[in-house]
Amino acid sequence: MFPLSAQLFLEELKEQPQDLTTLDWAIRQLEALSTKTARLNWDTRAGLLGVTLGIEFTIYSLLACGWFLICFYIFPIPFVWKFPVGILLSLVIPVGLGFWLRGGPVFRFMEIDVCTKNGQLADRFRCAFRSFLSWLPVLMPVGGVIISSIIAAENIANIEPVEGNMTYDWRAHPVFDNTIVVAILTSIVVVMGGLVYSLYSPERGLQDHGAGTRLMPN
Fold first, then answer.
1. Which residue segment(s) compose the domain that 15 sits in?
2. Do 146 and 129 fall into the same domain?
3. Do 99 and 20 belong to one domain?
4. What integer pLDDT is reported at residue 33 of this predicted model?
5. What is the pLDDT of residues 128-162, one digit of tens each?
6. From residue 16, how far is each of 24, 28, 64 by CA, in Å?
């Protein structure tokens, strides 16, 4: 399966006139293509993951913290809805960038294309769906940490100074319903497993199987 740059070369070659100028053009194009990476291997994928975790994860996590704080203190919604609403708002920017840039800023910077599993350039909606699958399990634990920290701070403020007993049992709070706890723990397992699987299968991680995509060098 050829990278998109090689596919584009073959398409343009069909339209060139059959003379010596086409031969010179083809030589120049092939020399340029020879400097590009033909396949995405594990060490390139590891570099992508490192840049993504170092830059994108940091920025998206900070934005997620802001959204969860807004949901907790500003939005007049029931407490049980603050977590899912915070997650959805936290995904707006990564999913939006996945739609706009066809994969995300790191992929654009490192010249990686999000393609279909057959090697054709994926449409923007498929790229956005891939970003959704990629960042949902990553940002869920962030929301869990933020909300649990807020609840812990409130509990500390409610400690009786004489008896030293908390007046509120945090385990009974709706946000710590078993379903949400299981979802957060599952997301952590999925993220760790996804990182390992991405090194094992650099072109098609777990999110690529879910979205029907493949990563290919430009």
1. 1-36
2. yes
3. no
4. 59
5. 999 999 999 999 888 888 877 777 666 655 544 44
6. 11, 14, 51
Same domain for 173 and 93?
yes
- Is the full-model pTM beyond 0.85? no
Question: Could you give the 3-state DSSP secondary structure of residue 118?
Answer: coil
Query: Which residue spans within the chain are E strands per DSSP?
Result: 112-116, 213-217
| H, E, C per residue of 168-210 | CCHHHCHHHCHHHHHHHHHHHHHHHHHHHHHHHCCCCCHHHHH
Give the H/E segment covering residue 103: none
Cβ-in-10-Å burial (0-12, 13-18, 19+) of 43 comes to exposed
Do both 110 and 196 map to the same domain? Answer: yes
Number of residues assigned to the chain: 218
From the list 78, 213, 22, 27, the residue with the least C-alpha distance to 134 is: 213
Mean pLDDT by 10 residues, the chain (218 residues): 62 73 70 68 88 91 91 84 90 95 90 86 94 92 80 60 46 54 77 90 92 88
Residue 78 and residue 56 share a domain: yes
* Domain identity same for 3 and 69: no
And the tokens for 110?
Answer: 């490192």
The letter for the amino acid at 62 is L
> Is there a single domain that holds both residue 103 and residue 60?
yes
